[in-house]
Specification:
The structure holds 2 protein chains of 2 kinds. By secondary structure, chain A is an all-alpha fold. Chain A has one domain. Chain A contains 11 helices and 2 strands. In chain A, strands 1-2 form a two-stranded parallel sheet. In chain A, helix 1 packs across helix 7 and helix 2 packs parallel to helix 5. Chain B has one domain (about 20-145). Chain B has 2 helices and 10 strands. In chain B, the strands form 3 sheets. In chain B, strands 2, 3, 5, 8 and 9 form a 5-stranded antiparallel beta sheet that branches. In chain B, strands 4-1-10 form a 3-stranded mixed beta sheet, with no helix packed on it. Chain B has a two-stranded antiparallel ribbon with strand order 6-7. Classes of the chains: A mainly alpha, B mainly beta. The interface of A and B includes residues 72, 82, 84, 163 and 164 of A.
Chain lengths: ~240, ~150
C-alpha cells in the first residue's frame, strides 16, 4: 500500500508539472504574441520562476495524489460521480461554494503572507517576479505552496462536488492563476469595466497587487478586498 | 402488519411486470433498473474473458443483446450460458450510435451498469470487480444503471 501511495503522489506531481508547462507555456506564448518583446529581458527571472514552480508541483501533487488515491480505492471524500446524486441546481452552487471558499482562504493567508517576517521568509519569492510572467503562476516558496496545496484536498472531504464540477474548479484555478500573472489582459475592456469586472478578478486587478504589494489580495473575487478596504482598482499599465 | 402488507403487494406487482419471463436452466434473466429515459437502446454483453471487458470485443463467445430502452427498467435473457465465471456490462446507448459517448473524450455521457454494481471511478471496472460464478441453474441478475453526466 505504501508503494501504491508513493506512485499516486508521484504521478500527481508529474500531472501538476505537465499541467504547469502546458498552461504557462501556452499563455506565455500568447502574451508574447500580443505584447512582443515583453518577456525578452526576463530570461533569468523566468528560469527562477520555473524552478520554484516545479518545487511547488511536488507540494501540490502529493496531497492531491493521496486524496485521489483514497477517493478511488477507499471511497473517501465527498466527490460524487453520479449526476443524479444531488439536485441539478447544486452543480452551479457547488462551483460557487468551492470558488468562494478557495478565494476566502487565499485572501486571508495571502494577507498573512504580507506580514513583514513571513514576507521576507517566503512570499518575497513570488514578488521577485517584477513584472510577473505566465511562468510565475506556481512560483512560490515551499512554505507558501503548502498553504495553497491543502485547500481543495481538504474541501473535497467537507463539501460534496460532482467530478465534472471539480474538474471545472481545477481548470478555472489553473487558467486564472496563469493569466492573472501574464502581463496582458485577455478579457475585452468592456467586460473588465462592467459589473462583472467590478467583482471578478482578472490580470488587470492582480497586476496592481504586484505593482503596489499592499492591496488587491484576492484570488477570484474582489469581495474580500472591497469588504476590507484593500481594493485599489485596476492597473493603469495595461492602458 | 402494515409493512408486511406493503411488502406482499410489492412482491405480487413484481411477478406481474410485463416481460418478466422466468428463466430456465442455462439462462440468466437480467433486469436493468434506474434507466433515466426511453431514448435509444440498452446494449448488454456477457463475457468470461477479462481482456477487453467491458466491451467484450476480444471474446467471440460473448453473448450480446440489444433491447429498446424504456423508462425505469428493461428485462432480457441470456440463453445457452455454460457454467463459468462471467461479468455483464450494460450501456444505455441513448443516441443509438453503438458506443459509449464521452464528454471531452473522458467522462461518459451515457449510462452504464455492471454486474455486482461494480464501481466506475477514473475508468471502467476491472472484470474481477464485476465477475460472478454461474453454475448453470436458472438465474436472475439485477443491474442498476448509473449516469455521470
Amino acid at each position: 500500500m505504501l508503494i501504491a501511495l508513493a506512485i499516486a503522489a508521484l504521478s500527481m506531481t508529474a500531472i501538476v508539472a505537465l499541467r504547469y508547462f502546458a498552461s504557462s507555456g501556452f499563455f506565455a506564448w500568447l502574451a508574447g504574441r500580443k505584447r512582443p518583446g515583453q518577456y525578452a529581458a526576463l530570461g533569468a527571472q523566468i528560469r527562477r520562476e520555473i524552478g520554484w514552480s516545479l518545487a511547488s508541483a511536488a507540494i501540490y501533487g502529493v496531497p492531491a495524489g493521496l486524496v485521489a488515491w483514497a477517493w478511488q480505492n477507499l471511497g473517501w471524500t465527498k466527490i460524487y460521480s453520479e449526476i443524479g446524486a444531488y439536485p441539478l441546481w447544486y452543480l452551479p452552487l457547488s462551483l460557487l461554494i468551492y470558488l468562494f471558499a478557495h478565494d476566502t482562504w487565499f485572501y486571508w493567508t495571502h494577507r498573512w503572507m504580507h506580514a513583514p517576517r513571513l514576507f521576507r521568509l517566503a512570499h518575497s519569492v513570488h514578488h521577485a517576479s517584477r513584472p510577473p510572467t505566465a511562468w510565475a503562476a506556481m512560483s512560490f516558496h515551499p512554505l507558501e505552496a503548502i498553504t495553497g496545496a491543502v485547500v481543495i484536498p481538504a474541501l473535497v472531504f467537507v463539501v460534496p462536488i460532482h467530478l465534472s464540477v471539480l474538474a471545472l474548479v481545477l481548470t478555472i484555478m489553473t487558467v486564472m492563476g496563469v493569466t492573472n500573472h501574464m502581463g496582458w489582459e485577455m478579457f475585452p475592456r468592456w467586460l473588465i469595466r462592467s459589473r462583472i469586472g467590478d467583482w471578478v478578478i482578472t490580470a488587470s486587478h492582480h497586476q496592481r497587487h504586484h505593482e503596489e504589494y499592499r492591496c488587491n489580495y484576492g484570488l477570484y473575487f474582489r469581495l474580500w478586498d472591497r469588504v476590507c478596504g484593500t481594493d485599489r482598482g485596476l492597473t493603469e499599465k495595461f492602458g | 402488519m402494515n409493512r408486511i402488507a406493503v411488502f406482499g403487494l410489492a412482491a405480487v406487482a413484481a411477478a406481474f411486470l410485463p416481460g418478466a419471463t422466468p428463466p430456465k436452466a442455462g439462462e440468466i434473466a437480467v433486469t436493468v433498473t434506474d434507466l433515466r429515459s426511453a431514448k435509444g437502446a440498452v446494449r448488454a454483453c456477457l463475457t468470461s474473458r477479462a481482456d477487453g471487458f467491458p466491451r467484450c470485443r476480444q471474446d467471440a463467445a460473448a453473448l450480446e443483446t440489444v433491447v429498446p430502452a424504456a423508462n425505469g427498467r428493461v428485462q432480457f435473457i441470456f440463453t445457452n450460458v455454460k457454467p463459468g465465471r462471467y461479468a455483464v456490462a450494460v450501456l444505455h446507448d441513448e443516441n443509438g450510435n453503438g458506443k459509449a459517448d464521452r464528454a471531452l473524450g473522458m467522462m461518459p455521457k451515457e449510462g452504464f451498469g455492471f454486474s455486482r454494481d461494480a464501481k466506475v471511478t477514473t475508468g471502467p471496472p476491472k472484470f474481477d470487480a464485476a465477475a460472478f460464478d454461474y453454475g448453470g441453474e436458472a438465474s436472475t441478475l439485477s443491474i442498476r444503471m448509473r449516469y455521470m453526466l
